[in-house]
Amino acid sequence: MSRSASLKVQLSALPDNPGVYQFYDTDGKILYVGKAKNLKKRVSSYFNKKQEYGKTRVLVKKIDSIKHIVVPTESDALLLENNLIKKLRPRYNVLLKDDKSYPWICIKNERFPRVFSTRKLIKDGSEYFGPYTSMKTVRTLLDLVKGLYPLRTCNYDLSEEKIRSGKYKVCLDYHLGNCLGPCEGLQSEKEYLNQIEDIRQIIKGNLKSSIQTFRQQMTDYAEQMEFEKAQRVKDKIEVLENYQAKSTVVNPKINNVDVFTIISDETHGYVNFLQLSHGAIIRSHTMEIRKKLEESDEELLQLAITEIRQRFSSRSKEIYLPFAVAVDDDLKVTLPKLGDKRRILDLSERNARFYRQDKLKQIKITDPDRHTKRIMAQMKTDLRLSEEPRHIECFDNSNIQGSNPVAACVVFKDGKPSKKDYRHFNIKTVEGPDDFASMEEVVHRRYKRLLSEEEPLPQLIVIDGGKGQLSSALKSLEVLGLRGKIAIVGIAKRLEEIYFPDDPVPLYLDKRSESLKIIQQLRNEAHRFGITHHRNKRSKGAINSELVNIEGIGEKTAQQLLKSFKSVKRIKEASLENLTASVGASKAKKIYKTFHK
């Protein structure tokens, strides 16, 4: 496959999610790292238009492959881009290569802790919250904190002995009301720590009470006609309401860790690896493993852990996994259930899932036969069939209070509609709205004809309906001697449950299952096809009845008129001469007289 064709396939498979993209050249060297609110639109923009800058044009010419990492939000994409650029230092990235980082809020590990912003993380037991993509958010939070709670800003060592000895004197902040004077023992440590706990909750995002206070303050300013102050408070409220308390991508509490998750189908396993260093994601890689002997997820994950850690020379002593797997004794295995660790695991699993979806989209374009085989194998397993359902037929009834009852049969071959094989049925032996009897009739007529004409039978029949319709269809198969020779299931509309013959307990397929999607597509197509035929029949019946009601005009004459004039409206507007030319003078006079009273 040529480079342009390969890139076109890769672009078509990109998701419409926020994330970070990476461009690589033919030697596998990284060229550029970028962030995107919508990966598909952003990456496609490099190739869909002529680039204004020469550097970008040169970059695009060198791109051979594209990788991406999906994250929950645009802010996470911003932070992850920063981490990866600093780690990988791509040639075409100019910004973010320096040692600057995003700001954090620090609650210092000391007696009477200070609260301040910083860009450096020092491992001295202090608490760090963030990082934040906007310094405006940090300043607003710190202003909020300082406005609500008087805290010290000095860097004195406020040990109990030094305070007791009277070493320090209160400063200007105390006289301005910004500090309660813990340096002279005027504020107890317990009272101060209670304030710090409140501040901790605000920084974590528990802002409800603070926002209510600001709203009251804004209202008070507005009532006093101090609109500029009210606007400043309103700006703070908006920032706080949009404030995101947590970032999944960076968490200083999580040290050097390897994260592994797996997604699998009938033929392949997809293992995602996230490498975290000092709480930041510095690498993401997904490995595709072909199943040879129907290996379990545990076996595939165990194999991938060893290979990936060797490939990237990982020396992390702890790994996060979705389930227990046998690994080296010197490795600590964590199975996260809640909190930040679980969020990191979920992020890894999401990237494995997106990688699989991208691969399947690319295979569908480049190798449709493999795509078909995979889906057929999946359906065979999901529906407990003895063979792959290469030929599927689905039946649906359509009537309104018993009028003009019809049925439809749609045919899928290799998972795709075969419209030339679709069939309509007008119900002949059933009177009134009886879906069960109608289903029995059309199934019998369909397969009696296939048997008599020695046409190939389907491997699977899908009945649109629950146990009742399925039982009716089974009666017809039994009469024809086909029960047990063709697999048959019913799909009920309410919860999309799948019913099998002689099994009262339905099967519930995963809502994202491709097997369920094909069955739903069959059902929807049968419904559409049946409804279209039913409407046409009702319409024709209404037109015919208007003409047939004329004395001396029968159904045959009505059809002849419609064939000549195409519609009742044109028949009503036709001249006597034109009507005579179509059906003769006698009938023409009656029709003309009826419509021209």
Automatic annotation (TrEMBL):
Role, per record: The UvrABC repair system catalyzes the recognition and processing of DNA lesions. UvrC both incises the 5' and 3' sides of the lesion. The N-terminal half is responsible for the 3' incision and the C-terminal half is responsible for the 5' incision.
Signal sequence range: none
Pfam family membership, one: UvrC_RNaseH
Main location: cytoplasm
Domain UVR intervals: 208-243
Cellular component aspect of the GO annotation: cytoplasm; excinuclease repair complex
Domain GIY-YIG: 16-94
Name recorded for this polypeptide: UvrABC system protein C
Gene3D superfamilies in UniProt: 5' to 3' exonuclease, C-terminal subdomain, GIY-YIG endonuclease, UVR domain, UvrC, RNAse H endonuclease domain
Compartments, as annotated in UniProt: Cytoplasm
Record's keyword annotation contains rRNA-binding: no
Keywords linked to the UniProt accession: Cytoplasm, DNA damage, DNA excision, DNA repair, Excision nuclease, SOS response
HAMAP family, per database record: UvrC (MF_00203)
